[in-house]
Each structure stands twice: as C-alpha cells, then as structure tokens.
Amino acid sequence: MVHTVARRGALAALAASPLAFWLTSGSAQAAGSGRSRSRIPRGYSGVDPRTATRVPLWQELSETNPIFEGDPEFTSKIFTTIPESGYLLEQITSLGTHTGTHISAPAHFVEGAKYLSELSEDWTLMPLAVIDVRTRIERDGGDFSLEVADLKRWEKRNGAIPAGGCVLLLTGFAEIFSAAVAKSAAHGGKAKHPAPGSYFDPAPGFTGDAAGWLFDHRSIAALGSDTFGPDATSDEDFSATLTSLQKGGITVENVGPGLASMRAHGDWVSINGARPRFSGFQMGITGFTK
C-alpha cells in the first residue's frame, strides 16, 4: 500500500509538470554521461510544454524531398484502398533511413556504437538553443564553419547553452527545401533534386572542435541543423557529425522551416518516432515556445 501511494504521488507530480519528467527521466542517464539535470536550466522555466505554442519542426516526407548524394530515393505506392479492402495501406518501396527530417545515432559513424533502439530517453525532450546565421549567410555566403569562439560570443548575447540540450543551426535552407518539394510536386514529382543555387548550395556547419566543446564543456545531448546535417558542406570529413556521435550524442538533420519561429534561448524541443535497430530514422520534431 505504501508503494502504491508513493507511486501515485510520483505520477501526480509528473502529470503536474512535464519539466519535472525531464528532470526525473534523464537523471540516471545524465549521471553516467556527465550531463546534469539537477535543475531546469536558467531561462527555460518560463515555457511549459503543456501550455506553450507548439511549432512543427519537421519536413514532410515525400518522394520529392531533396536527398543526399548517393542515398536511395524515397518511393512508395498504394497497396490497398478503402473501397478495395476497407482500409488504406501504403507500401514504402525504397527509403533510406537518413532521408528527410531524421536523427542519426552513434552507430551511423562509429562501429560498435549504439543504434536508435539502444538510446536512452535523454533526447526526447530537450532545452533548445538556436544559433541563427542567416544574416551572415546573406552577407558572406554559406561557405563557413562555426568555431568555439563563435559559440562563446553567442552565449554572451543569449545565455549559457544548457546541459542536456539540443543545439540547432538556423540557416534558412529549410525554406529552400520546402520550395523545392513544392516545385517538384507541381511538375509531377519528377525532379528529385532542386537545381543548382538551392538546397545543395554551400551550407555552413560546426567544426569538429566546436562540436567537441559543446559535448565536453556544455554537456549537450544533440547537435543539428536545418540543412543535411551539422557539418559545413566543405567539410568532407563530416567532423561535427563524427565528433557528436563519438561523444555518444545524436545529430538532428533536415529540420523544418518552423525553426525560424523558435527563440535563440529558453524554448524546448521534443523528438520522437520509431526506434528500429538502425543507425538513423525519420522523426517528428516539435518545438515549444512562448
């Protein structure tokens, strides 16, 4: 009876505060990874996911999505219809696990590392930090990488990057992604890749050193971008992705245009979806803001 009452009390507390769930669910994992969830990060208590404005941060998965060079195309067909069988069932005939909005698990780059099915719950609800480089891209173009010094300057303007958090780069390329999908759909979905001068332009990213600093000194859980990934297009070694996955984190890729609606500091992000024993998979991503 004592255990039942205690359990009911704990459940009531979690129901009363989703942020309390964030603190509780990640405590054991955080202790083992160096991440601290002993308190809600400063500046993040003002947004409650229950009452916050919810922002979709994903791209719709379609056969007209821009895909990374060499990846399999996404194709599907209607397997059966409601008039035919009483229900609608689609069949995916080709789909790479890293197409569209998705996350990558450590196994994507690190042999013997964890697959999606083996990850903890740390990344399902995270404090969000958004690094907006759209003005810099307009001024200098997208061929650059963010260094540790850039991250420290961002913190001076916005506040400390929170432990257990998700850091996302806002480039504005997601708007181009969406426009490319719409254009391809208007042409019967035949154009798999947008033309030059689009989503495949040089895109910025994080250096490997910057990614390492975020995991080692800020204890983040995830690093990502509204492009193909957290690496600059010019980085053929994928240094930011490799470092993030070696540190046991995840990368968040092809984030949607809704990212532009999120604040730089103080908001939250939820990521969830199927967890097969794959190195990556499509995910739903929701932002919570004022």
What does this structure look like?
This protein has 9 helices and 13 strands. α1 (2-16) crosses α2 and α8 (208-217) runs parallel beside α9. The N and C termini lie far apart (41 Å). The protein has a 9-stranded mixed sheet, with helices on one face. Strands 2-3 form a two-stranded antiparallel sheet. A two-stranded parallel ribbon has the order 6-8. The protein is α/β, with parallel strands linked by helices and 290 residues long. β9, α9 and β10 (250-253) form a beta-alpha-beta unit.
**3D shape:** globular
SSE series: HHHEEHEEEHEHEHEHEHEEEE
Number of strands: 13
Instruction: Kindly estimate the percentage of residues that lie in beta strands according to DSSP.
Output: 15-25%
The unreliable regions are 1-16, 27-35, 190-197
Number of helices: 9
Q: State the separation between the terminal residues, measured CA to CA.
A: 41 Å
Helix content: 25-40%
Q: Major sheet, described briefly?
A: 9 strands, mixed
How big is the Rg? 20 Å
Strand order in space, largest sheet: 1-13-11-5-7-9-10-4-12
The structural class is: alpha/beta
The average pLDDT is 86
Short structural description:
The protein is of the alpha/beta class and 290 residues long. Helix content is 29%, strand content 21%. The protein is globular and about 60 Å long.
Write the layout of secondary structure elements.
Layout: H1 2-16, H2 18-25, H3 27-33, E1 53-56, E2 75-80, H4 82-85, E3 89-94, E4 102-104, E5 125-132, H5 134-140, E6 145-146, H6 148-158, E7 166-170, H7 173-186, E8 205-206, H8 208-217, E9 222-225, H9 239-246, E10 250-253, E11 265-272, E12 280-282, E13 284-289
Parallel strand pairs: 5-7, 6-8, 7-9, 9-10
Antiparallel strand pairs: 1-13, 2-3, 4-10, 4-12, 5-11, 11-13
